[in-house]
Amino acid sequence: MNRKVNPSSLALMMGALALIFVFWGANAVAAGPGTVTLTVTAVGKKDTSPSVVTQDDVQLFLKKERTQIADWKHGGKLYLAVLIDDSLDTGIANQWGDLKAFFAGQPDTTYISVAYARNGTAMLVQDFTNDHELVAKALRLPLGSGGAFTSPYLALLDLMKRWPSSADRRSILLFSSGIDYFRGDFWTKPPDLDSTISRAQKQNINVWTIYAPDAGANSRMKRARSPIISAPPRPSTSSLILMNSPRTSATNTC
Predict the structure, then answer these.
(1) Predicted pLDDT at 187
(2) Of 219, 84, 99, which is closest to residue 143 (Cα–Cα)?
(3) How are strands ordered across the β-sheet holding 169-176?
(4) pLDDT tens profile 6-59
(5) What is the DSSP code string of the chain?
(6) Which of 46, 75, 134, 170 could serve as a FRET partner for 190 with CA atoms 20 to 30 Å apart?
(7) What is the pTM of this model?
(8) Among 107, 117, 118, 116, which residue's Cα sits nearest to residue 126?
(9) Domains of the chain, CATH where assigned
(10) What is the average pLDDT score of the chain?
(11) pLDDT digit string (tens) for 225-249?
């Protein structure tokens, strides 16, 4: 992680260097009896601003059958929780300058928090605020060893369980190797992965991930790489657009 990454590349990597859970347009949370709320993001071509999307422009299908959209609302606020695995190699801090620049580039409607994943919990160091300079000051070196070697999935679950329900956009940006030291191994799917995905979907929380090696990566590199880390494809602009574009909420009856 010593290669220089500029702020735009950092944003582009979100979702591209993913573990295996990117919830693009599939996140749903119950909004009442017979209703489901989805987050829909309009994407413009070649980084241009997308055109206004109205309810009449959208068709919703459930099991190949067209379903009624009961409501369609624009969401202005974004709550972005940055969760950093405390088991990461301290070299990841070389990229904090890029992350701070990303924070600074967010509009006032983006509220950011910072937490560190340690001992299966999300240790909050900065609560949500739209003071992006204050958020940047909360970044520190990860511990790299000790009690940090547990499970990033349990920390994600802990963060989501403590996140109050909200109609605003909610996203988590996770920096992690994806390795579960608590109940997993290097060869099988982590036992808490499915429950993490399920909770994120039910709470309508988008989870974006950036791969970073942990402190023990160098000793393992010749033996194996964790199977839950997907090979990084070409960077896409999906997460960058998600963070900067307005959200439209569609409530459908089914």
Answers:
(1) 66
(2) 84
(3) 121-129, 110-118, 78-85, 169-176, 206-211
(4) 444 444 334 333 333 333 333 444 445 567 777 777 778 877 888 888 888 888
(5) --S---HHHHHHHTTTS--S---SS--EEEEETTEEEEEE----GGGPPPPP--GGG--EEETTEEE-EEEEEEE--EEEEEEEETTB-GGGGGGHHHHHHHHHTS-TTEEEEEEEEETTEEEEEEEEES-HHHHHTT------SGGG-S-HHHHHHHHHHTS---SSEEEEEEEE----TTT--SSS--TTHHHHHHHHHHTT-EEEEEE--BTTHHHHTTT---TTSPPP-S--SHHHHHHHSPEEEEEEE-
(6) 170
(7) 0.69
(8) 116
(9) 7-24+77-244 (3.40.50.410)
(10) 74
(11) 333 333 233 332 222 222 333 333 3
Tell me if 38 sits within 8 A of 27, measured CB to CB: yes
As given in the structure block, the two tokens for residue 234 are 């070409």
